[in-house]
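Priority: medium. Attachment 1 of 2:
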């Protein structure tokens, strides 16, 4: 049976978060993490792309924005801030980073693959925490120092690589407007149902990693490599698997990212390299099996 969250509790959580946002020293967090965030409403999201890695999958060099874009996001909450994130690590980095996270009071909520056959293999560590935001930022920075994750924010490429795809057609098929990011065309598709964790609404959903993410990397001749993750309730998992496989899209992982979210969510990762329009149609067929939004 799913737990329900009283409306007044949700409204109260939003009010508290708004008030708490006034008290967070965001500049100090920026300095601690060594980079500037993308800000959406009251969430500050810091990217930790693995620009140091050269990962190849099925002959495709993987750009950071396709599948190597680690991140952490801070949201004001009662008692300071909540933080959640998804960090990209090599196999040898998982245990040293995990040990430092645990020693400094952060929770590990998942460790898993996203891709198959990639060389070198990459793993993804989901983390969560609550408390003093500067202490949380310091703990994250210290743990990532156990890996080779670049800890100095790089200047964005100028000009950004061109995206050699019919992006207007992709927008039309997927049903939302995508955006370019370092040569990758990215979509965030929201669910219609609200998502909470410990009674707090997880909004905005894209910044907090609870929107379906779809990434296209051009591979020439109208083709694209695609990956990302569907955000699914249990009854949607197998219909989406069937839809993806029917359209020639490989399902590469199925797992959880969090521990206490409502409704219970599952995250499905995928991969293909084929005609971009054909793949978009397959992704749309899978989205139609979910409670996702359009427009």
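Attachment 2 of 2:
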């Amino acid at each position: 049976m799913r737990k329900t969250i009283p409306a007044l509790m949700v409204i109260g959580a939003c009010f508290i978060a708004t008030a708490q946002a006034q008290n967070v020293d965001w500049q100090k967090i920026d300095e601690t993490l060594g980079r500037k965030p993308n800000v959406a409403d009251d969430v500050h999201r810091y990217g930790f792309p693995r620009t140091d890695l050269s990962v190849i999958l099925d002959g495709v060099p993987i750009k950071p924005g396709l599948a190597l874009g680690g991140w952490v996001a801070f949201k004001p909450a009662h008692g300071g801030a909540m933080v959640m994130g998804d960090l990209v690590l090599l196999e040898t980095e998982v245990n040293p980073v995990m040990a430092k996270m645990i020693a400094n009071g952060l929770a590990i909520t998942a460790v898993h693959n996203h891709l198959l056959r990639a060389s070198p293999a990459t793993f993804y560590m989901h983390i969560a925490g609550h408390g003093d935001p500067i202490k949380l930022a310091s703990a994250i920075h210290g743990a990532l120092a156990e890996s080779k994750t670049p800890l100095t924010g790089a200047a964005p490429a100028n000009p950004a690589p061109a995206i050699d795809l019919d992006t207007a057609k992709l927008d039309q098929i997927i049903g939302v407007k995508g955006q370019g990011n370092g040569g990758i065309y990215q979509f965030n598709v929201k669910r219609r149902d609200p998502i909470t964790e410990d009674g707090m609404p997880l909004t905005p959903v894209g910044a907090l990693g609870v929107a379906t993410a779809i990434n296209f990397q051009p591979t020439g001749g109208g083709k694209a490599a695609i990956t990302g993750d569907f955000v699914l309730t249990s009854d949607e998992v197998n219909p989406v698997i069937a839809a993806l496989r029917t359209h020639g899209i490989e399902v590469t992982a199925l797992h959880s990212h969090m521990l206490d979210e409502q409704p219970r969510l599952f995250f499905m990762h995928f991969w293909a390299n084929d005609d971009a329009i054909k793949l978009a149609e397959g992704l749309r067929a899978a989205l139609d099996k979910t409670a996702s939004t359009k427009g």
